[in-house]
Amino acid sequence: MSMTKARALILALGVVSTIFVAGPGLADPTGYSLQPNGTTVGFSTDFGKDEITGQFPITSANLKLDFENPGQSTIDVTLNVADANASFPFAAQALKGPKVLNASEFPEITFTSTKIRAEGEGARVEGDITIRGVTKSVVLFAQFWQQKGQAAGDLHLLKIRLTGALMRSDFGATGWSDMVGDEVRLDILALIEQEK
Amino acid sequence: MFFNTHETFGLISRILHWTMALLILSLLALGLTIADMEPSLDSLWLYGLHKSLGFVALILVLLRLVWHRISPPPHPLGDPAALPQRLARGAHRVIYALLVIIPMAGWVGSSATGLDTVLFNTLTLPPIAPVSEAWETTAFTVHWATTWTLMGVLGLHIAGAFARAIKGDNTLERMISGS
């Protein structure tokens, strides 16, 4: 999803920031589950003057969020590499092939948060990401929005956007480095609902 | 008219010869272009075109070899034991060998990348090599080296044809008009 589309969507949802302002007590981190319809894990990278974009299906996600004490929050996500798609067929093949993500040997990408803290109007999410069996630290920036029509303190349904970037060469995913950029930008948009 | 005789080139041999001449030059130009360019979405089709035309060239050279069994080409003009005639015969053999090796090396290299080799946006060729960087590098090195060898030998082939034409020999003329 492009930045402008994402922005338009967020505007359409009705932007409500400053959710991290302390509200009436939620003592323990609250479990959230992903709503598949509102969730995309998107990436983009440079291809000459163009971009290759694509998405990974989510195998599982485990979210525990604490808006009063963000440090207590944890995020664990597993992505399905084998069923990833990209903006044109050769890119999808290249992405999953042995020179990039090597999906047959490493069918999953996993992310486990290690440190989450409030920053600006969102949160800084630091964690370990494992790609091609190589684990590296990555920092994502998270923003949260309520859905249109939700009351100020109502956190049962939220849109979360995580953005960040990594260098694919750090993980040995070096195929087509003469044609395709090293920096891979991540743009994850998730609709999450409190577990009951 | 279609068949070769002892003295003349039939239409089929001549069409195959000149179509391949045109194809080889187009493939060289395309190959040099894609080797140098920074790819983007707009230029991706040039790879497909190079592979498509290269496969056509491979089919044509195989057809031509089969055709020579059915309808052998005319005897060379002049003394077959003389040096220019022997050089020409050697050059022809090298050209045929390279015209098979070059597209095959391209096909092997393309297969080794793990990406589909799609002809004319429709037909996907089966891979003929394992997905491997070693295979890819080796095959494209062979593709590159044999292409430049072909260009060298074709230079001699063309120079020979003109040299004969200047001397009043009918060799070039009969590949154009048949006799």
Task: Based on the model shown, name its key terms.
heterodimer, A: 196 residues, mainly beta, Lipocalin, 10 strands, 51% strand, elongated, disordered N terminus, B: 179 residues, mainly alpha, two-stranded antiparallel sheet, 70% helix
Question: Can you describe this structure in just a few lines?
Answer:
The complex is a heterodimer of chains A (196) and B (179). Chain A has 196 residues and is mostly beta strands. Helix content of chain A is 10%, strand content 51%.
Describe this structure in words.
The complex is a heterodimer of chains A (196) and B (179). With 196 residues, chain A is mainly beta. Chain A has two helices and ten strands. An eight-stranded antiparallel barrel of chain A has the order 1-3-4-6-7-8-9-10. Chain B is mainly alpha-helical and 179 residues long. Chain B has one domain. Helix content of chain B is 70%, strand content 3%. In chain B, a hairpin with a 3-residue loop joins strand 1 and strand 2. A two-stranded antiparallel sheet of chain B has the order 1-2. Chains A and B meet through helix 2 of A and loops of B.
CATH class of chain A: Mainly Beta
Poorly predicted segments of chain A: 1-18
| Helix fraction bin of chain B | 55-70%
Largest sheet report of chain A: 8 strands, antiparallel, barrel
Q: In angstroms, what separates the terminal alpha carbons of chain A?
A: 30 Å
Task: Summarize the amount of helix of chain A as a percent range.
Answer: under 10%
Largest interface: A-B, 13 and 13 residues
Nearest-angstrom radius of gyration of chain B?
18 Å
Largest sheet of chain B: 2 strands, antiparallel
Q: Largest sheet of chain B, order of strands side by side?
A: 1-2
CATH architecture of chain A: Beta Barrel
Q: How is the largest sheet of chain A built, in terms of strand order? A: 1-3-4-6-7-8-9-10
N-to-C SSE string of chain B, H for helix and E for strand: HHHEEHH
Helix/strand-derived category of chain A reads mainly beta
Q: Please state the overall shape of chain A, judged from the principal axes of the Cα atoms.
A: elongated
Using the coordinates shown, work out and report the CATH topology of chain A.
Lipocalin
